[in-house]
Amino acid sequence: MNKLCLLTNLSSSDIAAWAQAIVSSIAIIVGAIVVFWQTRRARLELSEREARKLDGLVYLLIHLKESALEARAEKKSLQRLPLGHPTEPSKRFQELADEIQRFPLEAALAPVQIDSLLTIRRVVKGMLPYVDSEPELDLNSDNERIFQEYAEVLDGRILLFQEEADRLMKGKQMRHAVPRNWKSYRDSRS
Fold first, then answer.
1. Per-residue pLDDT tens over the stretch 121-159
2. What is the largest CA-CA distance in the chain?
3. Alpha-carbon 126 to chain mean position
4. What pLDDT, on a 0 to 100 scale, did the predictor assign at position 70?
5. What residues contact 116, with CB distance under 8 A and at least 6 apart?
6. Cβ distance 69 to 151 under 8 Å?
7. Residue partners of 155: CB distance under 8 A and separation at least 6
8. Contact at 8 Å (CB) between 86 and 133?
9. Quick one: 131 exposed, middle or buried, by C-beta within 10 A (0-12, 13-18, 19+)?
10. How many Å apart are CA 95 and CA 68, to the nearest integer?
């Protein structure tokens, strides 16, 4: 008869075996929870670092767009800053455009970002004639419309990067595809 537990017919070695099995099961469950928690924490930290990179790119793009708008306004004004002046908006735009061109594609983390960076590089090249320091040539009345279309593309990419950074900060996975109908997607988000 069992002297340790009066309610069972188990011997003390059987009770020891059961106790060891229960403690081992609890240790395995606790170990699995710890590994899951550490893995999740590491993934969230990585997502946060990626989101911070995107936030930096967003700020660069916002400054690029603002400098383009300032340069465009300066180009239309009659009293302009002298060419080469350090605060001349077209010079600032050119500096930011150079930074965008040098931004490494390998720093982009997903196809959405690579596509956006390539689009932004094309837009920046296309905007140069509309914001450079040369006087406005009013031979083409579509200049303002074309400039605004470029600015809208920049707005859309800024919005895309901001949403992606928000997703990453919330611990969600990165999107790996650009919405098929980008314009209607952007309009629905406004």
1. 899 988 888 887 666 555 566 788 888 888 998 998 888
2. 108
3. 23
4. 85
5. 108, 157, 160, 161, 178
6. yes
7. 65, 186
8. no
9. buried
10. 11
- 8 A C-beta contact, residue 130 and residue 146: yes
Dist CA 89 CA 120 (whole Å): 19
Tell me the two tokens of residue 153.
């593309």
Predicted local distance difference test score (pLDDT) of residue 34: 93
Structure token digits, residue 94: 């050119």
Phi, psi of 167 (to 5 degrees): -60, -45
Other Cβ atoms closer than 10 A to 157: 25
By the 10 Å C-beta count (0-12 exposed, 13-18 middle, 19+ buried), 60 is classed as middle
Residue 12, both tokens: 């003390």
Q: Which two tokens stand for residue 114?
A: 């690579």
